[in-house]
Prior knowledge:
The protein is α+β, with helices and mostly antiparallel strands. Helix content is about 20%, strand content about 35%. The protein is globular and about 55 Å long. The chain has helices spanning about 1-10, 45-60, 75, 155-165, 185-190, 225-240; strands at about 15-20, 25-30, 80-90, 105-115, 120-130, 135-145, 200-210, 255-260, 270-275, 280-290, 295-305.
Amino acid sequence: MPICRIASQLSAGVKRDFLSPSKVRLALAWGFPYDAFDGQARVKPWHIISMVESGRALSFNQLPYKQDQTFLSVDRLYVDHNLFQGSAKLDISKALYDISLTKTPLTLEKELLFVGKSSLNVKTDVILSPLGIKLASCEVQSVLVDRETRRPVPFPDWWMEMYGQFSSPEKQLKVVAEKEPLDVEAAIKTGAQVSSESEPFDCGVTSVDMVVCASDTDVYGHTNWSAYLKYCIDALASVSHCRKSDYMLKRAVKTAQIAYKNEGSLGQKIHVRYWRKKMTPNCVHFNVVSCADIEQMLSYACVEFYDLTDVSMTNFSKL
């Protein structure tokens, strides 16, 4: 499979240790690449997801130098199935934005948290190896689908016998998509009843048009799951720049909760719509939808930003 070839390309300088049937540690000889940093030396948050994805490739697949074991025996599942991302939760430590810390080498520690009928949750901690400092943590819910029908299927009995015992029901990842604010004026024109008790929103909904580029796609030609967070941040930044407001541009991402609803594809035109609630001004909600006569929801995200008093970007030296 193509993902195996990618894992082979990444495997040089990687030490893979299976700590238990439900835990694996990947010691990397490298850190973030040059293009992972923005002009203020901040790691772009979607590159954390890309790092987590590289850990999936290195742990779920056979490697050239070690052909006897994979994390969660996923290589056996890959014979007739695929694992598609259903949702993700990203938590970023303030340490990631500390430019006095050189972000290399890195260690990825992966742990199985939850097993459902056809889904599993795996948490990945991204750790700065020399100091043992956690830079970020990412939980990912993956859904097992049949390779031919592309529909969810239950895990095989042999797999459940091996790994079902490590499931903690309370650790199931649930990302609930918020509804977009109601366009009050449009609703009134159509005769809809508008409640005066609806939750107050800040500045309504802003929409930005984008196109899925080739560099945003995965080995199957679909939009890579890390790209959706990039679309959200880029949309927010571009509008802030056009409005000559750098307030949001100075904010560092603290958490991101993302739900993946449908697949995007190369060349697809999309709308990225976002809004804020007055009660939670540090959070921005995003909907990524297909640009068509009948819109299709592709992804939802809720991104929380650090307050400027918590993580100041004014101390960063511009490159």
